[in-house]
């Protein structure tokens, strides 16, 4: 798959430091609307090529996420190659911070899968181009979950005629993750029936299940201890909503025939392995929430730290109200999809691309 074909990427930065063992990649996809903002993911990629593919997909998704959310930000992302459970060090994140600083604000980083606000505090010692710090807006995961939750309400209303979660079965992939856990809490409080899997960490998932009353299934861990998300039994569960909140590419040739849901709505990035999978969902009558549209809550929240946009500084109440507007954007995408007879992912793409196109045209006038 050639991810560059037909798409413009502005910059790909390879970050290496022998002393600390740092191996990272920063991708800046598009800065038409503003500086590229996107988190730093840490993951034990088997090959550098896998890390490159991931960061390209993630950075492009951030461009579309910022655009459709109405933010004056571009799209970027960073990945650090390593195991977040054993390869982290203060020196490594300081070395990474130096690379971020060299970009002089063209890329602004934050936490993501495999990194925490504590890691970003270390990065902030070497650069000011960091958001989502504990002393400011903090962990973006609860806000991402909040946006996913409100988008899910809009989808329930479309499919079932009511936005009530009472008695609705929601199958959550990644229920013990940062976003999955906070989403599960919101759903439990709304009386949804929860079923979940926890990926590599079943023990954490079992703890969440006990806390929230969720049924926890075995996940896709092979006998040798490795994890294959295509083996996750969550795809086979008959449910009202399938909520993927783990890694990308989970809607693919292997998993599509197994889906037994009416709605797909989750916080994971790049859920469609190929655009054609979104078309198949549309043909099957499964209402799909474009991931970058509904998981923009964390981005919206941290954007409130940027003084250029909010001179009075971060205000949690204002950020929360802003995140809840994702409900209206989801309704708009459903409306466009129905009116034009196109899949929801195409409707969202159109909104994002039209805003970027208008900004480019304005700059050339």
Short structural description:
This protein is α/β, with parallel strands linked by helices and about 375 residues long.
Structure description:
The chain has 365 residues and is an alpha/beta fold. It has 2 domains: 11-59 and 73-123, Leucine Dehydrogenase, chain A, domain 1 (Rossmann fold); 141-295 and 328-351, Rossmann fold, CATH 3.40.50. Helix content is 41%, strand content 14%. The protein is built from 12 helices and 12 strands. It has helices spanning 48-68, 90-102, 117-123, 141-160, 178-189, 202-212, 275-284, 291-294, 297-303, 316-324, 326-340, 344-364; strands at residues 11-17, 22-30, 36-37, 40-43, 74-81, 107-108, 169-173, 193-197, 215-216, 241-244, 263-264, 287-288. Strands 1, 2, 3, 4, 5 and 6 form a 6-stranded mixed sheet that branches. Strand 4, helix 1 and strand 5 (74-81) form a beta-alpha-beta unit.
Helix content: 40-55%
Task: Describe the largest sheet.
Answer: 6 strands, mixed
What general outline do the C-alpha atoms trace? Answer: globular
Give the averaged pLDDT, no decimals: 92
CATH class group of the largest domain: Alpha Beta
Question: What are the secondary-structure elements, in order, as H or E?
Answer: EEEEHEHEHHEHEHEEEHEHHHHH
Calculate the terminal CA-CA distance, rounded to whole Å: 36 Å
**Low-pLDDT ranges:** none
* CATH architectural designation of the largest domain: 3-Layer(aba) Sandwich
Number of structurally distinct domains: 2
CATH topology of the largest domain: Rossmann fold
Radius of gyration: 19 Å
Q: Could you tell me the number of beta strands?
A: 12
Report the total helices: 12
Beta percentage is: 5-15%
Q: Spell out the CATH superfamily of the largest domain.
A: NAD(P)-binding Rossmann-like Domain
**What structural category arises from helix and sheet content?**
alpha/beta
């Amino acid at each position: 798959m050639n991810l560059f074909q037909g798409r413009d990427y502005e910059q790909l930065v390879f970050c290496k430091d022998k002393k600390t063992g740092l191996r990272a990649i920063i991708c800046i996809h598009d800065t038409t609307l503003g500086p590229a903002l996107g988190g730093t993911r840490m993951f034990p990629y088997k090959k550098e090529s896998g890390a490159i593919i991931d960061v390209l997909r993630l950075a492009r998704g951030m461009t579309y996420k910022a655009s459709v959310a109405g933010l004056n930000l571009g799209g970027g992302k960073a990945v650090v190659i390593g195991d977040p459970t054993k390869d982290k060090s203060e020196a490594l994140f300081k070395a990474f911070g130096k690379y971020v600083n060299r970009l002089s604000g063209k890329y602004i980083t934050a936490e993501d899968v495999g990194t925490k606000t504590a890691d970003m505090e270390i990065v902030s010692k070497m650069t000011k181009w960091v958001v989502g710090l504990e002393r400011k807006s903090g962990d973006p995961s609860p806000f991402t979950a909040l946006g996913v939750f409100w988008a899910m309400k809009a989808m329930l209303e479309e499919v079932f005629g009511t936005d009530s979660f009472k008695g609705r079965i929601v199958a959550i992939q990644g229920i013990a993750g940062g976003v999955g856990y906070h989403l599960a809490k919101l759903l439990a409080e709304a009386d949804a029936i929860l079923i979940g899997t926890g990926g590599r960490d079943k023990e954490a998932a079992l703890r969440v299940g006990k806390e929230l009353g969720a049924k926890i299934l075995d996940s896709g861990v092979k006998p040798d201890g490795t994890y294959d998300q295509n083996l996750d039994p969550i795809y086979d569960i008959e449910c009202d909503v399938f909520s993927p909140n783990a890694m990308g590419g989970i809607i693919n040739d292997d998993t599509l025939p197994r889906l037994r849901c009416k709605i797909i709505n989750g916080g994971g990035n790049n859920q469609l392995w190929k655009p054609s999978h979104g078309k198949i969902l549309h043909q099957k009558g499964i209402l799909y929430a474009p991931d970058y549209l509904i998981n923009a809550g964390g981005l919206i929240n941290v954007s409130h730290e940027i003084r250029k946009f909010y001179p009075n500084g971060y205000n949690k109440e204002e950020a929360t109200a802003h995140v809840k507007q994702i409900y209206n954007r989801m309704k708009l995408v459903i409306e466009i999809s129905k009116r034009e007879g196109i899949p929801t992912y195409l409707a969202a793409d159109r909104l994002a691309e039209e805003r970027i196109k208008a900004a480019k045209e304005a700059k050339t006038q």
